[in-house]
Amino acid sequence: MAKALKDRLALSRTGLFIGLLFLAASVTPSLIPRPYLMQGALSGLLLALGYGFGILGLWFWRYLELPIPQGRRVRISGDLACAGALFLVLLSFWNARNWQNSIRTLMDMPPVESVEPMSLVLVTVLVFLIVLFVSRLCLKAFRFLSARVEPYSTRPISRVFSALAVLILVWTIADGILLKAGLRIADSSFRELDSLIDADVAASTDPLKSGSAASLVAWQDLGFRGREFVSSGPSAKDIAAFTGKEAKEPIRVYVGLDAADTAEERAALALEEMKRVGAFERSILIVAMPTGTGWMDPAAMDPVEYLHDGDVASVGLQYSYLASWLSLLVEPNYGQESGTALFRAVYGHWTTLPKDQRPRLYLHGLSLGSLNSARSMQLIDVIGDAPQGAFWAGPPFPSAGWISATANRVKGTPAWLPRFGDSSVIRFTAQKNALDIPGAVWGPMRIVYLQYASDPIVFFKENAFYREPDWMKAPRGPDVSPELRWYPVITALQLGLDIALATTTPMGYGHVYAPENYLDGWAAVTAPAMAPAEIARLREHFISQREKYQ
Predict the structure, then answer these.
(1) Who wins on pLDDT, 525 or 259?
(2) Which residues have C-beta within 8 Å of that of residue 353, sequence separation ≥ 6?
(3) If you average pLDDT over every residue of the chain, what do you get?
(4) Nearest Cα to 476, choosing from 515, 430, 427?
(5) pLDDT at residue number 186
(6) Where do the domains of the chain lie?
(7) Which is deepest, 52, 183, 287, 542, by most CB within 10 Å?
């Protein structure tokens, strides 16, 4: 019995060796600093994954009927190899603090004194044991089914059938129960948050505000983020106080997810609300797609209203309650329907207006909003009467236009800050304004991408499992650790975790975009009449106001 228990608990030397190598690499830096709890979960998963690769490789070796070395000398060699791999793990854990601080220093974050090694090890081991237990449970299920099916078929058929049955069962539990239940819980939680009405934020008495008594959209139907959007932002008085010139009250229109049943109905409602408040009588009109939760970044919208003395109208349409990173990983196409419906409604009316009297039309979005905003406009549909431009911040990695422009960048320009063609249509910028390109002349349509090199939502690559991403090659972005190294499989999973942590960085890094960088983008896209010296003064103003937007 004791021997049976020992055999049951025994670990494969081959699996353990590869698992320990994965574990050693798991604590190396990626784009975002990782707290010990997240690091432990990642390390435990990679330890289990490496162990699984070792077991799979050994099985394949046996399947090919290749000779397996036996004997005491082989066992000693295996033990020594595992000991060497364990030594690498200890070295990695010893250096983990320095690796994390190599990122934190670049992001102006205080250094960590410790990575909580004991807690890190406990979480790692716990996650590994859970994955190992589930894996062995699946193996038992496979053997049980195979033994029951084999008397009625051949051994290969029974094994294939059993393997497929177990895979279907696991997938059904993971996707149909765990994932969907988790999403339902998340959706319910975000929905509850969205329905909250802040007692400190009351519906405006201004009839030109969405949610007012005169509005076509009820205050409660704006949603939490919509109410936040229409009630915030600079007033005409705020803008005039800064510029010293007469200013208009910016127009902000928003329609929440509960305002109508379908995307088309919500878009039609938004259009009617825009007509009611005179949005098409402004000089600048922005069709903005919010993030997954419906949030419109005030750091993005305030600067453009200052640049144009408040003569700006913006419209947003909610399409989800979920956080962008969650929607992006689960369903990257989520929100495209709403984006397309809103753009078609606004663009359809805009094209009926006299060209010399209508506003200049721009698209905007941050994160998932950027992705859906870009997908809402098909160039073939607007080429005869195109909008004046687009400003997309933090474009997620599936963004087709961004992928094409980056892949076909001018030779010699880095992937994290590329140049495309003659820069007459598309330009990229980051923390340091890179939009004033000597010799480049803007065309009739201007598109700007704002992206930080440390943003994993932008720079995650599916092929990072087997290929080093271009953005890791020299020269690297100023906010990317020089200690970052590419490892097959491991780096891709690190970047996947980074996506979930992308908004935990200080402003100006990761997926947290700073107002002064938005200002640079809007100034390039919309070409305001404001003098360069005034734009520079406005930039300093927003730098001084960073805390307000964090």
Answers:
(1) 525
(2) 280
(3) 88
(4) 430
(5) 56
(6) 12-191, 204-452+513-549
(7) 287
- Give the integer Cα–Cα distance in Å for 6 and 394: 52
Query: Taking Cα atoms as reference points, which of 217, 243, 240 lies closest to residue 230?
Result: 217
Q: Which of 86, 122, 115, 85 is nearest to 98 (CA)?
A: 115
Q: What does the pLDDT read at residue 2?
A: 40
Instruction: Report the distance separating Cα 549 and Cα 513, nearest Å.
Output: 10
Q: Which residue has the tokens 């406990």?
A: 122
> Judging by DSSP bridges, how do beta strands 426-429 and 360-366 pair with one another?
unpaired
Q: What DSSP letter does each residue of 10-50 carry, written as one string?
A: ---HHHHHHHHHHHHHHTS--SS---HHHHHHHHHHHHHHH
Long-range contacts at 443-446 (CB < 8 A, ≥ 24 apart): 444/386, 444/388, 445/386, 445/387, 445/388, 445/389, 446/388, 446/389, 446/390, 446/524, 446/525, 446/527
Cis status of the peptide bond prior to 475, with omega within 30 of 0: yes
pLDDT band at residue 185 using 50, 70 and 90 as cut-offs: low
- Quote the pLDDT of residue 457: 95
Cα–Cα distance, 43 to 19 (Å, whole number): 10
Write the secondary structure of 434-455 as one string of H (helix), E (strand) and C (coil): CCCCCCCCCCCCEEEEECCCCC
- 496 within 8 A of 112, measured Cβ to Cβ: no
